[in-house]
Design goal:
This protein is of the alpha+beta class. Helix content is 30%, strand content 24%. Helix 2 packs antiparallel against helix 5 and helix 7 runs parallel beside helix 8. It comes from Thalassomonas viridans.
């Protein structure tokens, strides 16, 4: 989740097998302008919300004390809006602006949350210490010098970006879990428009949509164990929201096939998780081979633009290959590199967004503590055949 390693940059610049992908450039599909616009809108919206909430803290403090405890350190803004204890015009406008920037205008619930930055701050806040209200800056977190925060009078305070404050701090930002869940629905809908009908539902809930083998069984690969390296992210970043994009070639047509894998459990770097989660349904992929890209939710992502750009990039690669059968599964890394190239440049220097990539995973094969190409993820994959009832 830090800067893209040189080894992977070389992989992306190479035409791995025959060179057909070399004419596809990131600018052909990259949603740069909308991404930049979203970043500006989000930065302004989060700042306004932090200022507004700080000034109205005395009105909402009772609601926060009722909602936040040792088991739950955050509250969705809907709880504040529904409490009818504050002036909500500014907050509602900011939430609408965020939804627009992310392409999630149809979502009824608020996408904004208020989160206590760290559990160590809970006791002091519950004892009555006055909190600050902060928001995560934009840009590369390795270059952050300070965090902008506001006291209960609306006055600005500058906090060290890498030293956890002793004073309680509430972080105003996008509700990552809700935003990601809604955003992945949008991505599945875009992918489904190109023949990925099964991608409308999550992999974990979509076994019935797969085509079973002759004996009625389903061939899958599961994530038995996964670990992301500890990148020492700033205290304000909070937990990650990770998802995977599995891509390969449609078994019946010469076109890419993309699926989404939700990973709601994968919250923190430096922690090993054992989800036993189905990641790949092999009936969806030709040559029993697929790649998997790991991504992290980003506040500024417009999911419709992202899905469209990735699908267009993958399709462009396929069109440059006159006879996919000749190269076989060797074309899949070319598709993956095209997908990665379609991502905005900033995603390779920021903590968010691109995490790692696994090239050429095969059906019926076990991969123990398998490192991603970027060296950030270590995963154990195992085959699993699901027998018919």
């Amino acid at each position: 989740m830090k800067k893209l390693p040189t080894s992977l940059m070389l992989l992306l610049s190479m035409t791995a097998f025959a060179g057909q992908a070399s004419t596809v450039t990131p600018s052909e599909a990259k949603p740069v302008s909308s991404q930049a616009k979203a970043k500006v809108n989000l930065a302004a919206s989060k700042r306004l919300m932090a200022q507004d909430i700080s000034r109205q803290y005395h009105k909402i403090s009772a609601v926060l004390r009722n909602e936040i405890n040792e088991y739950n350190l955050k509250v969705n803004v809907d709880n504040l809006l529904n409490a009818d204890v504050m002036d909500t015009k500014q907050l509602q406008q900011a939430d609408l602006s965020i939804k627009s920037a992310k392409g999630l205008e149809s979502v009824n619930e608020a996408l904004v949350e208020l989160r206590l930055a760290h559990e160590s701050m809970l006791a002091a806040w519950q004892a009555g210490e006055s909190p600050l209200f902060a928001f995560a800056p934009e840009g590369n977190d390795s270059q952050w010098e300070y965090i902008e925060a506001y006291d209960v009078d609306g006055n600005i305070q500058l906090l060290d970006a890498y030293v956890l404050p002793e004073r309680p701090v509430f972080v105003v930002g996008v509700d990552g879990q809700r935003s990601l869940s809604e955003g992945l629905k949008v991505m599945r809908a875009v992918f489904s428009g190109q023949g990925n009908k099964a991608a409308l539902n999550s992999l974990s809930a979509n076994a019935s949509a797969s085509i079973a083998a002759d004996d009625g069984s389903l061939s899958t690969t599961v994530i038995k164990k996964i670990h992301l390296n500890d990148d020492q992210e700033p205290w304000i970043s909070g937990a990650a929201e990770i998802y995977g994009i599995v891509n390969g070639v449609n078994p019946s047509r010469d076109e890419p096939y993309l699926d989404i894998v939700e990973m709601p459990y994968l919250d923190h770097d430096g922690t090993t998780y054992t989800p036993n989660q189905i990641a790949i349904y092999w009936d969806r992929y030709r040559w029993s081979a697929a790649d998997m890209i790991l991504m992290e939710h980003d506040d500024g992502t417009n999911y419709k633009d992202l899905a469209t750009a990735l699908l267009e990039a993958a399709t462009a690669i396929m069109r440059l290959i006159p006879d996919p059968a000749v190269q076989g599964y060797a074309i899949i890394p070319q598709i993956t590199n095209g997908i990665i190239s379609a991502m905005p440049d900033a995603w390779f220097t920021n903590d968010d967004d691109y995490v790692d990539v696994y090239y050429t995973l095969f059906e019926d094969r076990t991969y123990n503590d398998h490192m991603g190409a970027g060296g950030n993820a270590k995963t154990t994959f195992e085959p699993l055949e699901i027998a018919p009832r």
